[in-house]
Specification:
disordered C terminus; acid-thiol ligase activity; Rossmann fold; single chain; AMP-bd_C_sf; about 1000 residues; eleven-stranded antiparallel β-sheet; oxo-acid-lyase activity; alpha+beta
Amino acid sequence: MHPLHWRDTQAQHLTQAGLWQPQSLNEHLQDWARAFGPRIALIEGDQQLSYRDFEHQVCCLAGGLADLGIHSGDRVLVQLPNGIAFARTLFALLRVGAWPILAMPAHREHEIQALCELAEPSAYIVAERFLGFDYRPMAERQLDLCPALRQLVIAGDVDNRGVPLATLHGAVREPEPVDPHSTALLLLSGGTTGTPKLIPRSHADYAYNAMASAQLCGFDRDAVYLAALPIAHNFPLACPGLIGALSTGGRVVFSRTASADEAFDLIARHRVTHTALVPPLVKLWLQAREWDHSDLSSLRLLQVGGARLSSDVAALVTPALGCALQQVFGMAEGLLCYTRLDDPQSVILNTQGRPLCAADDVRLVNTDGTSVAAGEVGELIVRGPYTISGYYRAEAHNRQVFDAEGFYHSGDLARWSADGNLVIEGRIKEQINRAGEKIAAAEIEQLLREHPQVQDAAVIALTDERLGERVCACVILHQPQPITLGALHQHFQSLGLPRHKWPDQLEILHSWPLTSVGKLDKRQLQQRFQCNAEPRQRYLECRVPISADPQALAAALAGHYLPQDLTLYEHQGEWSLGIGSIAQVRLSGTTVQLNVAGQCWSWPADDIPLALEKAAQALPFELWRAYGTATFELARRFHQLADMPSTRPLLQLDIPPLEIRVREGSALIRALQPAALNAAQSRVQELDAECARTLDQSLPRVAQVDIAHHDAARYCRQVESAVAQISRGDYQKIILSRKVPLEGRVDLVASYRAGRLANTPARSFIHHKGGFSCVGFSPETVVEVSAGGAVSTQPLAGTRALGRDADEEARLRQSLYQDPKEIAEHAVSVKLAFEELQPICEPQGLGVSEFMDISRRGSVQHLSSRLKGRLKPGCNAWHAFAALFPAVTASGIPKREAIAAIAEHEGGSRDLYSGCVMIADSDGSLDAALVLRSLFEDHGQAWVQAGAGIVSLSLPERELEETREKLASIAPHVRLLAVETQRAAEVQP
């Protein structure tokens, strides 16, 4: 009998038995809205929706989707993170009769393209950005690659193509009539080959899946479910998850991630009663609970599934979190097993429970298909009221895994305990369970073999305390040329593979160990390499709610930790403060050096980006953030000019033992030691209360700063000389600067607060190391590189003052647009930046996304453009940095000749001025701010500095005036230490 025929014969019986309801999922939502109308259904951040409002929004969105041309039977690819937009989109598609294909936010081009080829969706609904990844370029490429794809809908801002999800508000219309036995949605299977398989779940079986689970798990009208795992997974969606909670009148709270700092706050704030995790996250929550004291008293039940939870970890859940534990074994294909709420502890700690439904027909069989004896291990096969009878468009595979009696052969190995519960013992086919994500070894092996240096590959799972299992790539190379883990990461990035599938460990072999029958012996590989990965120190984390302005609190924190070495870096709404240094990466002399706890490693600096990547990979910390600087004179190294004398490294990155990241509403504290974490938490809370109740007590402005006349005559002579050199063809453009000294000792924090209030920078920072300090309000970034390899730079060239009022600002802006000198200066800067990106970026997608806009920066306005691209395979963030550093708007064109001439005209080192302050993360991202509009202090000597771009049309007086305009962004806001504080500072050793 074909499995579909078995399912058909059961449909009437299942309906008569009450297991299947004669309703679609949309009709269930309508019933829930009528029954629970004013009750809160969904919570995301500050947004709350009642059942009635949620159902109304679903109806309006369904109308908008229908107006867009999405109809019954259409497949629609949905890739949205946890949130109300996901729930609204899911049910709106169900209302119009379309089939949502639920992709994970972690999926990248490799999987998305395969899904498009398999399912031929007519529309793709995707987030604009999530956790730093920009989905739009990937989504736009699918429009070009997939003929069936007609519509791109973006949850967020739309760039060039697509429709904003927020604008889809159509008229409420009658829902499409839907057969409850028909397909409702398509879930994704982890699989064992890596090829995506789609799991068609019907309205009837999926409603039963969720509603029966809700009843078994004790959900009721008072249930508050925290959706912490990615909601597109079957587990948090319908086991009982989102759908199960809604069916009982409960509420669902969405968490962007499952990190303890975010989840604990939501549990405490919303009195969460139920949530679900995978085993690696359970370990992280238990570790976090050692120092976190959030109120988790409302939590009644923690479900754990996705992999087997060890009994020793299971035993820690209730004492640490104060809630009951429920072990879950399930599959998106159907079968769900739960330990029961009243099971004895021995069952809960040591088994994965028993089937949800008495009608689940579960057998354990040997390779011959014969049932194994009691207590023996066999392959789990199943059929039942909510187990599928075939994958979507996968006939060949269906013949392999569904037998004539309708049983699905899962590939899972299990045994029955004496009390009738399942104990899962592993998989028949090789699969790596990395932090709950199933990764097919065969898929990674095949992609490794596509690397030009790799002859053969084997991928194994190694036990990992944090991840559960980590991915170890064992390779044999064509030639004995070195290959790095970073190079393989670039390879997988270029293939569009998500980060969680990249190997965590690399081992190079000359031949394979073989079994007695000549097959590759992966067990030997596992035994050999299990201990090869050095343990990396983890940051402890906690998140503290704050009520103060984040800028004010961040500055106050910097003031508290000074005079310790620190860097405060503002970017994208976050003030990130790194305090102290536990490890340093330095470019000095002919090597890149890594120093950790007195140990030193070095790499030749003949290839600086590669050496920096190797040093970063060798850092013995997990999820680190480095805070660093690069002096302007690093540019001489990049452009083969002789080094200039300097007391500081050309480039230095510091890994802090303590960092605090402040944004609106919360501060994330990360420390390597519990005592430092606790002390910082207390300090954040104290300063938050203080900032919230006191007004800014700024010190008086610094006394006269002669930005108008100091060194003016000399500067004009330099401009004249540079124009003469440009006229004879030595170079096209040069930026010349002048210093203006300050009297007295600078109050770094008060200067930062005053300057930040008066400026609108792209980035801002405080940097203090040893006797050197810098406070800056950067008008532009040198380079921004995302973890996914997206590169961006924003050259600013062409300047006018803002003026005294709106009318004068408009007049000056118009003169800027009409000034041929300024326009020419800007155009050549954009052209050079494009040419610098070409060698390191893929040709498709490299271009100018903004051109000749106006950016307001403090007291001035600039012509502004932005260029974007994506790194080529083999290139990392440091290649992008090397290509663009120094910023064209702070050096000149061509850069080499301009850099040499700057030293000639200015007569010395610029040091950090027109270099950069930056942060770099362990995921490969990099953000480097150009050091302009800055205040400097070196061992008690303070100054401000500004420059102007010189081209053939430049006039000395106009360029001098431009330096005055720029200095006005910082000089009037400098604050001095009080006299008694200055004296104390002067007598310090």
